[in-house]
Structure to design on (701 residues):
């Protein structure tokens, strides 16, 4: 349950929320513009909070791209009633299967359904009439287009007339407006070019407009971005794709050139950024530092990509992206995606490629295969998916993290000499079983048993850049792994052998006796403390002199002494700090955090997760550029320091499962900012249950 407070007057309540306050709140999200639907949202809110006490179904229907899903996601529910949102319902049978799962009762609960089909909406009607979502007006279409293209700035006068024509010919479809905005934002700011776009739009019928616009956006992509987009369509519909995995898969498939450059990761991030800026890819999850954690495809964009793959028989010429060379100076490769029809033909013709009808050309030796990111979808054909890929020896990426691989996997792996990405869930593992994979870049292992890694073998795998192994031991030798960029779940003694690490996960289980961080280049650190002795050991803080270039620090399980706080505050580039499960410990008392005389001069994002703190003192100089403050399971802290009202950059306070007085203090800060500046610049978000303060004995020394 989520409550979003954006107006300051009135008392904080978890049971009721005024309609005016809720409607204001759903238009404050910069990532999803909802323009022209203010009246629609107000009507939907009335349907949700008024009317019958029995369970009701509110349907929204309209053609693809009109904004049904966006509107549904932006409308909150309140109190103890439940709200279920069913997106993209195509037939009545789907509702009949799901409807029996939702509790009945006179609590005012609601089920919201989004569908393209009017008859489905009418059939599901209980008490409320289905709501037909209207098209944007020309004025609202232009407002949305201008926001997307000029990022909040006004359109130059010489482009205004052409821009208005483009908006008018989008025919009121928000999806079309957003896609066109992503395309023309990359064009030269010439009225004649914009008028050509408007002319093209005017010739497209309404029913086919979304697909035509996506086709146009696709045609305007640089060659190296096209396979990156099509590859994403292989993930299931509405799947939240982890960005870290996606970028590594792109590198493995050589969509980003597999060269010796140190900036392959940066190049892949640039590719994703381009697709996001063109609105072909959506953000579906953000980290606290506002980096994209998950992304996804709009269902219409995904439908286009699958059509495109089918039309081309799942084959394409892939031009790898090399940021250091001209785009057309790199030789293209002919690739085919492994799909269901191809799997059946491969099996029928016993993997004799020259006999397979869909491969109707002679030069099969030049054909390279791209495996599906979720290869276990073929388990209905193969009890062991490895039986398939072993016959297609030139696959580059293998992700089998969702199914436990059989013990025979090591033998099978010997023929897969081209692998660059390997993610496995195994019972047993020895590094020598994959030592022949000299091109391997990413290794991710999950095992029910402890995995032994040999440093000498690791050093022979010179292109290995990213390692994440859940439970491992390491045979230490005098070796240096210079190519390694990320290493998850690392141990202290191994750190100095990784001089070029950028992202590190470190577990500390003993009181350190020497400085922990000899690597200055680390910019992201996940530090886990598992030592109860830290509660009674002092002086160890001097070994926590963090990497000087650190930008993101996630610190869990620590007794946060004054010296430790100063070590963190000295970091000149630190942007985000997450403190989890720790305790502030001052000279005079514990569970009291006083940073009045400490300045975190670059910190933008601060998150406190189950942080055991009863009282917090800070000055307006403590966090001068803070933008977001988040609490989760803060059961003891009763008040946010009032000085946070004096931070000019603060725009979000988010609380989840915190005591009620903490939420009250957040709303007081919001109210003070509004009264002093006249601006509604701070958003307060309260999620989950707000606990009433209660007596509790905190664990101590």
């Amino acid at each position: 349950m989520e409550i979003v407070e954006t107006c300051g007057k009135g008392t904080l309540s978890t049971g009721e929320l005024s309609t005016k306050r809720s409607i204001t709140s759903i238009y404050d999200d910069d990532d999803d513009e909802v323009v022209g639907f203010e009246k629609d949202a107000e009507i939907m809110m009335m349907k949700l909070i008024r009317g019958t006490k029995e369970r009701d179904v509110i349907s929204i229907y309209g053609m693809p791209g009109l904004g049904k899903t966006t509107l549904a996601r932006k409308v909150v529910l309140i109190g103890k009633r439940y709200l279920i949102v069913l997106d993209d319902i195509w037939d009545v049978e789907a509702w009949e299967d799901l409807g029996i799962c939702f509790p009945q009762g006179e609590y005012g609960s609601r089920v919201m359904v989004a569908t393209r089909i009017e008859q489905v909406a009418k059939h599901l009607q209980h008490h409320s009439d289905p709501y037909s979502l209207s098209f944007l007006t020309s004025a609202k279409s232009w407002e949305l287009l201008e926001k997307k293209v000029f990022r909040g700035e006004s359109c130059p006068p010489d482009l205004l007339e052409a821009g208005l024509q483009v908006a008018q010919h989008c025919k009121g479809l928000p999806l079309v407006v957003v896609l066109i905005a992503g395309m023309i934002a990359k064009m030269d700011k010439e009225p004649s070019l914009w008028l050509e776009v408007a002319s093209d739009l005017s010739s497209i019928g309404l029913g086919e407009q979304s697909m035509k616009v996506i086709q146009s956006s696709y045609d305007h992509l640089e060659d190296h971005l096209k396979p990156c987009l099509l590859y994403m369509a292989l993930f299931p519909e509405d799947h939240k794709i982890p960005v870290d995995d996606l970028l590594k898969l792109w590198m493995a498939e050589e969509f980003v050139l597999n060269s010796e450059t140190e900036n392959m990761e940066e190049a892949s991030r640039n590719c994703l950024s381009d697709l996001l800026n063109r609105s072909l890819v959506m953000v579906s999850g953000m980290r606290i530092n506002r980096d994209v954690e998950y992304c996804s495809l709009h269902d219409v964009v995904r439908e286009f990509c699958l059509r495109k793959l089918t039309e081309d028989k799942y084959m394409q010429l892939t031009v790898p992206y090399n940021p250091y060379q001209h785009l057309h100076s790199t030789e293209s490769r002919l690739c085919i995606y492994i799909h269901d029809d191809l799997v059946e033909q491969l099996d029928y013709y016993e993997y004799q490629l020259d006999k397979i009808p869909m491969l109707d050309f002679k030069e099969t030796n030049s054909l390279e295969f791209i495996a599906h990111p979720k290869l276990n979808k073929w388990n209905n054909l193969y009890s062991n998916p490895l039986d398939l890929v072993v016959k297609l020896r030139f696959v580059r990426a293998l992700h089998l993290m969702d199914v436990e691989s059989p013990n025979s996997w090591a033998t099978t792996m010997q023929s897969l000499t081209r692998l660059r990405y390997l993610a496995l869930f195994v019972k047993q593992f020895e590094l020598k079983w994959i030592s022949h994979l000299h091109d391997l870049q990413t290794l991710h292992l999950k095992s029910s048993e402890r995995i032994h890694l040999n440093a000498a073998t690791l050093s022979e795998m010179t292109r290995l850049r990213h390692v994440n192994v859940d439970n491992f031991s390491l045979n230490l030798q005098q070796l240096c792994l210079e190519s390694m960029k990320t290493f998850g779940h690392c141990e202290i003694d191994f750190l100095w052998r990784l001089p070029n690490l950028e992202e590190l996960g470190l577990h500390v289980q003993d009181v350190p006796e020497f400085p922990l961080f000899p690597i200055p280049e680390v910019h992201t650190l996940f530090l886990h403390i598992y030592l109860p002795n830290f509660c009674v050991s002092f002086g160890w803080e001097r070994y926590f002199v963090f990497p000087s270039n650190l930008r993101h620090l996630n610190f869990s399980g620590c007794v946060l002494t004054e010296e430790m706080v100063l070590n963190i505050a000295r970091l000149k580039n630190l942007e985000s700090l997450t403190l989890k499960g720790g305790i502030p410990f001052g000279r005079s008392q514990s569970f009291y955090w006083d940073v009045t005389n400490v300045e975190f001069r670059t910190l933008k994002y601060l998150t406190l997760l189950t942080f055991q703190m009863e009282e917090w003192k800070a000055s307006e100089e403590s966090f001068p550029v803070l933008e977001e403050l988040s609490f989760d399971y803060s059961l003891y802290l009763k008040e946010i320091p009032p000085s946070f009202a004096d931070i000019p950059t603060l725009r979000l306070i988010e609380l989840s499962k915190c005591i009620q007085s903490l939420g009250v203090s957040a709303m007081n800060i919001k109210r003070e900012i509004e009264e002093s500046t006249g601006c509604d610049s701070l958003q307060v978000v309260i999620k989950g249950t707000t606990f009433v303060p209660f007596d509790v004995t905190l664990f101590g020394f």
